[in-house]
Design goal:
With 240 residues, the chain is an alpha/beta fold. It has eleven helices and seven strands. The two termini are 28 Å apart.
Length: 240
């Protein structure tokens, strides 16, 4: 599946992670759900080895009737596809560009809420252990006006990119002159549009009635660790 671009991979992920729902949907309904064209869905199905969406749906019904249900692999296949897809995207170029921004900054500020906040704390400690000045912010009641300046960079972690508190903080950072790098599941959300630079990872997410859940945070960890390795090299160290 390493011939998928980012958008195609997000469609592919939806199709394989939501087989029961997809088997009952029309191509127009999937198109509206994913905010992509029907022709793009057809193209992805063809890359999967089918003539189109209808044949893919037919295979799901056959699979459900004839084949025993597979044991949940815990997302293993999805992660394999994600890492394979990186070879055909600009992922590593974007990591290098973001690393240059961080390397030149006085301070790196990690921002997130919920699980993203915990990842921000981890990233801050990881960067500090590698000689990169960093802090994490997950208390959005704190008054941060004037604390940071244009020599700093904010790394904002947000799965959906639509958390109001996080986006308000981005606006504050922009007002203070910080460069804002957003790490998010897509490039088509509010946080990404507010940012100076975006690194996206495109994996299926599940929304319930309580909050927005990411299927996995492994890509975020990989992005953070890739960034610290690249910054370390830029500072004259090694990538080990």
């Amino acid at each position: 599946m390493d011939n998928f671009n980012k958008l195609e991979f997000s469609i592919f992920s939806y199709l394989i992670e939501n087989k029961e729902a997809v088997s009952q949907q029309t191509i127009s309904e999937v198109s509206q759900e994913l905010h992509v064209s029907s022709s793009m869905i057809t193209k992805v199905c063809q890359k999967m080895g089918y003539t189109g969406f209808l044949e893919y749906k037919a295979s799901l019904k056959y699979e459900d009737k004839v084949l025993p249900r597979k044991h949940d692999d815990g997302g293993y296949d999805l992660l394999i596809h994600y890492f394979n897809s990186l070879k055909s995207t600009d992922f590593f170029d974007r990591i290098e560009q973001a690393a240059y921004i961080i390397e030149k900054a006085r301070l790196t500020v990690f921002v997130g809420i919920g699980l993203s906040g915990y990842l921000g704390e981890y990233a801050s400690q990881l960067f500090a252990r590698n000689g990169i000045a960093s802090v994490s912010v997950n208390d959005f009641t704190a008054q941060l006006n004037g604390v940071y300046n244009s020599e700093d960079v904010a790394i904002v972690l947000s799965v959906s990119g639509e958390t109001k508190e996080v986006n308000k903080q981005i606006l504050t950072f922009k007002k203070e002159g910080l460069t804002v790098v957003v790490v998010s599941n897509t490039e088509n959300n509010t946080a990404a549009h507010l940012a100076d630079f975006v690194i996206s990872y495109y994996v299926p997410n599940h929304i319930d009635e309580v909050h927005y859940n990411s299927a996995t945070q492994v890509p975020v960890l990989f992005i953070l660790e890739s960034l610290v390795k690249k910054v370390r090299v830029l500072k004259g160290g090694t990538d080990e």
